[in-house]
Amino acid sequence: MPGPEFCPRPRRIRRGAALTLVFLSVLATGAATDALPHQPDAGPRPLDARPVGATVDRDDVTRAAARAVAEGKSGTEAAEAAVSRSGDRWGAVYDRNEYKEFQRSLDGEYTGVGLWARRSRDGLVEVARVQPGGPAERAGIEAGDRLRTVDGRAVDRRPVTDVVALLRGGERTSVVLGLERRGRIWTETLVRTTVPTESVTVESLDGGAVMIRVGSFTRGSGDRVRRAVEGAPAGAGVLLDLRGNSGGLVAEAVTAASAFLDGGLVATYDMEGEQLALYADPGGDTDRPLVALVDGGTMSAAELVTGALQDRGRAVTVGSRTFGKGSVQMPSRLADGSVAELTVGHYRTPSGQSVDGRGITPDLSTAGEEAQKRAELVLSGLGAGS
User: Fold this and answer.
1) Mean of the pLDDT values across residues 373-384?
2) Strand runs labelled E in the chain
3) Strand ranges (E), 164-254
4) Is CATH 3.90.226.10 the classification given to domain 200-326+344-381?
5) pLDDT grade, residue 151 (50/70/90)?
6) Pick the CATH number of 109-196 from 1.20.120.80, 2.30.42.10, 2.40.50.100, 2.60.40.1080
7) How far apart are the first and last CA of the chain?
8) What is the residue extent of each domain of the chain?
9) Annotation marks residue 216 as catalytic
10) pLDDT of residue 40
């Protein structure tokens, strides 16, 4: 399921980068592996022809911003230029307000109108679902409504990530949506507000199995996954749905993986030449049948979880190849108060496989509407609900 109109990703698109739809239809971050266990990652970024794995010298970016500020210029723009030249395709620069909003998103809330967008089969942009109690629902907007314009701008040919950015904005600001439903065309003026998100949802499946859908790894999501596993009926299998999960906080991803593992390696990563490792907490449920459902929108921290469960033989993975963002970002505060999220290293799965630029190939490849059906069938074959 595509994410809401706010997602943990930079609102600023680096100058000169070729815009590509990375988040399937959606949200983008939550992007991928966040920085080390306690820092947020940079979120999906436009892809370009630069080499996978490039990093940037943080001191160079910091000095560039400081020089610009001393000369009365924009430190944020100078930092953006330095990142752009560096080849760090996942690097991002936020001004103060953008970074504050980014941090809020990692706390599980965003400022917007409470709707999810996706690309329809006929190539149009439509509403995937609406947030209960949010501005969109109160205005009568429904899933399946076509989104034609945002503040007068046609959106049919724009990447969904661009549409998502247009829907975001400051608290109590307004946005005008042009909509269509079964031939009826109309506009709605909505006032943006702070909307909480449910990053983890639980659904009962036929046969007694449980589906745990993780939309992004925001703060507290790892514990919510663990509680969902502990609260599942005895013997019930689990379908862990990571489709469209663009990542988030690595620490939360490790906690989520720990719900299914009894300690042991989750991933290794290098940071500025030093090799480090992430380990699961002991005591996870290692007996329940488990299937992980992934797709091209499964990114970074979500790929970290997928790789750990697959490599350690804990889950059967079903779906399509994941996105392929295995880089680690860390924030650097700049002279004008802006923040640069810069790539400092890359992680590998327990078997030593690099994810960046490659993604993870599931055990059973299938796509589209059939993916969940196949995943449920595989889960039943593993003894779910028996």
Assistant:
1) 89
2) 92-94, 109-112, 115-119, 125-130, 146-150, 153-154, 174-181, 184-191, 193-196, 200-204, 210-214, 238-241, 265-271, 274-279, 290-294, 316-319, 327-333, 339-348, 364-365
3) 174-181, 184-191, 193-196, 200-204, 210-214, 238-241
4) yes
5) very high
6) 2.30.42.10
7) 28
8) 109-196, 200-326+344-381
9) no
10) 32
Q: Which of 86, 105, 258, 325 is catalytic?
A: 325
* Cβ neighbourhood burial of 157 (10 Å; 0-12, 13-18, 19+): exposed
Q: Which residue do the tokens 């006032």 mark?
A: 191
| 300 annotated active-site | yes
Supply 29's token pair: 């971050």
Mean pLDDT is highest, among 44-58, 129-143, 302-316, 328-342, for 302-316
Across residues 186-206, what is the average pLDDT?
90
Q: Which is the catalytic residue, given 300, 320, 332, 380?
A: 300
CA pair distance 340, 80, nearest whole angstrom: 8
Q: What is the pLDDT of residues 267-277, one digit of tens each?
A: 999 887 788 99
